[in-house]
Specification:
Blueprint lengths: L1 H22 L12 H4 L5 E5 L8 H12 L4 E4 L4 H4 L9 H12 L3 E5 L7 H6 L26 H18 L5 E5 L12 H15 L2 H8 L27 H29 L4 E3 L1 E2 L8 H4 L7 E4 L11 H12 L6 E7 L15 H13 L2 E7 L24 H20 L8 E4 L2 H9 L8 H14 L4 E4 L10 E4 L7 H12 L3 E5 L21 H4 L1 E8 L5 E4 L5 E13 L3 E6 L8 E8 L2 E6 L1 E3 L2 H15 L11 E8 L2 E8 L5 E4 L5 E2 L9 E4 L4 E5 L2
Parallel strand pairs: 1-2, 1-9, 2-3, 3-4, 4-5, 6-7, 7-8, 8-9, 10-11, 10-12, 12-13, 13-19
Antiparallel strand pairs: 14-16, 15-16, 15-17, 16-20, 17-18, 18-19, 21-22, 22-26, 23-25, 24-26
The structure holds alpha-D-galactopyranose (2 copies).
The site of one alpha-D-galactopyranose has 8 residues, from loops.
Length: 702
């Protein structure tokens, strides 16, 4: 009897241990790009964000069974469960999470655990009220909601260290926990309390060393704002940005981004020390501008981000998500990434945001993520919450767990991704074009837009969308990125530059690259101080133009004649170009500067620079601009992609994997360059591919 008992226990332990070995994630060797599929035991990451703490334990087994049946092999959990993990200061309870993991792991489901710092417990705020962030009027946030902590508060840092250390120690050897998500969507609110002010002053001191250097860099001679003591340096008021020193305001934005990065790094350091085999990521926010993601991602193993196409807009505007994917990929040197929150139902907080999308469209959006380089898709969330702020934010399942059309869509996609894994594994997006995003320029133009109608993101989309309409893949590059391999670089409103970036772009053009610059290029140096030179400042020589006059077109409609015979509406701004060596491509059509150059083309070294002095509402203007640049740099265009259809490509060993995504409610015909094989059916597709409404085709070269 005793022997049998021992054999049963040993047998169970052995099963648990072997299951553990089978589940333990693999880490990439140092220096190599992180391989997400290898990390997930060779499986394409397919998951759901799961909140076991909010459901009766009797539900867990049913959930895990339904997940497994839908091909789900991954969950993210725990990121809002601080109060349940540490119900009293220094007293921890992870037993419930162990039990949940055991249920999920038994169904072959691995987990990433979120450190729960985005939502600190009520007792922590009650004991240390100063951990709440302070707004610019000096009012502290009240308890409730989430993310309203202040990262410069020492009690909050101590509490963070305690919970992260306890979690890391508890889960470091757990075979079913393959990684960590730090916090949740780090970002605002900015904190304006005395601790933050002292932190900013210390940051300035580290950057400038002397007050003379700071005063010179910021140009504090203006309005006599000279500082004689570090403690005199104020925090800018958001509401008074327009009268604040723009150099101070830009440094404050950099400081904020650095502070979030430092906060993430505090957690990364603990996790790396204690749980070194587990990978670390963070769920980022695509186009969100307050964090320099390129910088933040230096300390993370791979990029994860939260992708919400939302239901409000015309679904055919796929480029909004496409650009966000490409920016996220670019923020870690184009390594593949994963989606930590992929829209799995209708979004909404107090109100549902828009109409319910057909279930089929959620599948197309999931494939869009894959097409842009995701090696993992995890839906937000498994089931709609019955409680709290997000009662109107739909999960895959609704509150009753009925297997609805979204569940079957998820299951279908999961099965397909399983089938596609060998093909996708090791493939990535390769682009001939890069869009250069400068966090400094974005911040500087938020501080001083120059003209009311200026929108950096819109300007990015003007060019980006045109490339995508013409079937061209685009990477997003950041100032430190390697630019040398691109045929075309678009640098929208590169207002703030430093000598390194100027040298890099100059060398790029001289070596044969094509660079598209726009209005508001080269206006300021890295201190957000206006250049002494004639605009476009450090780019005047390679662009072959001088700008002695410009017109911020407030409420006026200008017109651009060209490129070619057509005329296009102009908006936002007009640089009146005075070519030194450049050739005129388009001129203005109206008013006192009619006939003056609006767009120029200059040959420099082996390359070309286009300077586009204005913006247009017309997509055709950008199609023309891209056609000009593409001709010079030998980039192939597909002129016949129907509106609302995206063609996106991953490559592997020089062969293409083509995703044709139809976001419209009607069947579409897409002419392709060759007859591809359908990766799911194995059949050869005609060169004029037929794509049904809200469908996707994944095609490979034979
Ligand atoms: C007022 C002020 C000047 C200057 C101008 C332009 O006239 O007296 O110092 O600020 O406005 O803003
Ligand atoms: C973000 C958060 C999630 C959830 C969703 C939906 O992406 O990370 O916790 O709140 O939005 O609102």
């Amino acid at each position: 009897m005793k022997q049998l008992w021992i054999r049963v226990v040993c047998g169970l332990m052995c099963v648990y241990f072997l299951a553990g070995l089978a589940l333990r994630g693999q880490q990439a060797p140092a220096g190599k790009p992180f391989d997400l599929i290898e990390w997930n035991g060779g499986k394409f990451i397919y998951g759901a964000d799961y909140y076991p703490e909010a459901w009766d334990e009797s539900q867990w087994e049913k959930d895990a069974t339904l997940m497994q049946a839908a091909g789900i092999n991954f969950v993210r959990m725990g990121e809002f469960a601080w109060a349940k993990m540490e119900p009293q200061e220094g007293h921890f309870d992870f037993a419930w999470l162990d039990r949940a993991l055991k249920v999920l792991n038994a169904h072959g489901i691995r987990a990433v655990l979120g450190t729960p710092t985005a939502s600190p417990p009520a007792w922590l705020y009650a004991k240390y009220p100063d951990i709440a962030a302070m707004d610019e009027k000096g009012v502290r946030y009240r308890y409730g909601s989430r993310r309203n902590y202040c990262v410069h508060n020492s009690d909050f840092l101590a509490a963070t260290t305690r919970i992260v250390t306890a979690m890391a120690e508890h889960f470091k050897d757990h075979p079913g926990v393959i990684g960590w998500q730090i916090d949740n969507e780090v970002g605002g609110p900015k904190c304006f309390d005395p601790a933050s002010r002292a932190a900013f002053q210390a940051w300035c001191q580290r950057k400038y060393h002397t007050l003379d250097a700071l005063n010179a860099a910021w140009g504090t001679i203006f309005w006599g704002h000279t500082y004689h003591d570090w403690q005199e340096i104020p925090l800018p008021w958001n509401t008074l940005y327009d009268t604040h020193n723009p150099s101070l305001a830009l440094d404050f934005d950099r400081f904020q981004s650095d502070s979030m990065h430092t906060y993430v790094d505090v957690q990364v350091a603990i996790l790396r020390k204690i749980g070194s085999h587990q990978a670390i990521t963070h769920n980022e926010m695509g186009m969100y501008s307050e964090i320099d993601y390129y910088d933040l991602n230096r300390s993370l193993d791979f990029v994860a981000w939260d992708n919400y196409p939302m239901g409000k807009e015309d679904y055919s505007h796929y480029a909004r998500q496409a650009l966000a994917h490409d920016l996220m990929r670019g923020s870690k040197d184009n390594q593949n990434f994963m989606i930590m929150e992929q829209e799995g139902g209708l979004p909404g907080w107090a109100a549902f945001q828009g109409r319910q999308a057909p279930a089929a469209l959620y599948r197309v959006w999931a494939y869009q993520s894959v097409a842009h380089g995701a090696d993992g898709v995890c839906y937000f969330r498994w089931r709609t919450s019955r409680y709290g702020t997000e009662q109107y934010w739909e999960g895959i399942l609704d509150q009753d767990s009925y297997r609805n059309s979204r569940y079957f869509m998820v299951a279908r996609t999961g099965k397909e991704l399983g089938q596609l894994t060998p093909l996708l594994h090791g493939s990535k997006v390769v682009s001939p074009v890069a869009m250069l995003v400068s966090p400094d320029s974005r911040w500087a133009q938020q501080i001083q837009p120059g003209v009311e109608d200026f929108q950096y993101e819109r300007l990015m989309h003007d060019y980006y969308d045109a490339f995508r309409r013409l079937g061209v893949s685009v990477d997003v590059a950041f100032p430190p990125s390697d630019l040398s391999a691109y045929r075309i670089i678009v640098a929208p409103a590169l207002c703030v530059t430093d000598q390194n970036l100027v040298n890099k772009l100059t060398a790029y053009v001289k070596n044969g690259g094509t660079l598209i610059l726009t209005f508001r290029s080269g206006v300021k140096d890295e201190d957000n101080v206006v250049t002494e030179s004639t605009l476009p400042g450090p780019f005047a020589e390679i662009a072959g133009v001088a700008i002695h006059e410009f017109d911020p077109q407030i409420n006026e409609e200008q017109e651009v004649l060209g490129p070619g015979e057509s005329s296009f509406p102009a908006r936002t701004w007009s640089d009146i170009l005075d070519p030194t060596t450049a050739k005129v491509v388009a001129t203005y059509g109206k008013g006192y500067y009619a006939g003056k150059p609006a767009v120029t083309e200059n040959s420099t070294g082996k390359g070309w620079v286009y300077y586009v002095g204005t913006e247009s509402k017309s997509p055709f203007f950008y199609d023309r601009m891209i056609a000009l640049a593409a001709k010079k740099s030998l980039v192939a265009l597909n002129q016949k992609i129907p509106t609302g259809v995206e063609v996106a490509v991953r490559q592997k060993a020089g062969k293409k994997i083509v995703f044709v995504l139809n976001y419209t409610g009607t069947e579409q015909t897409v002419p392709l360059d060759i007859a591809y094989q359908n990766a799911l059916t194995g059949k050869t597709e005609p060169m004029d591919a037929q794509i049904p409404a809200y469908e996707v085709k994944i095609l490979t070269e034979r």
